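Backbone-to-sequence.
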């Protein structure tokens, strides 16, 4: 447990940030999962329509330092390639 006043304050701030970051991470996971699910079902057009929503969630998470920028970029690239490959079939 924190002893000093500043450490207690930092703990409170960290708890608030944790809730915010978890919520943002969950949005990213849900968006990515929905795109992957549509690709797996063979619904490439629907997956392509959901790509901007997933990209937005990834960009917002990277902007707020919830995930690293390169991680967001990698996930966007892989999602885009996956949808593109499904579209060509």
């Amino acid at each position: 447990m924190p002893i000093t006043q500043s450490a207690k304050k930092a703990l409170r701030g960290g708890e608030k940030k944790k809730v915010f970051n978890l919520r943002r991470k969950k949005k990213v996971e849900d968006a990515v999962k929905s795109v992957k699910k549509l690709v797996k079902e063979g619904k490439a057009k629907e997956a392509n329509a959901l790509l901007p929503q997933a990209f937005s969630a990834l960009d917002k998470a990277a902007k707020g330092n919830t995930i690293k920028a390169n991680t967001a970029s990698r996930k966007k690239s892989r999602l885009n390639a996956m949808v593109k490959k499904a579209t060509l079939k």
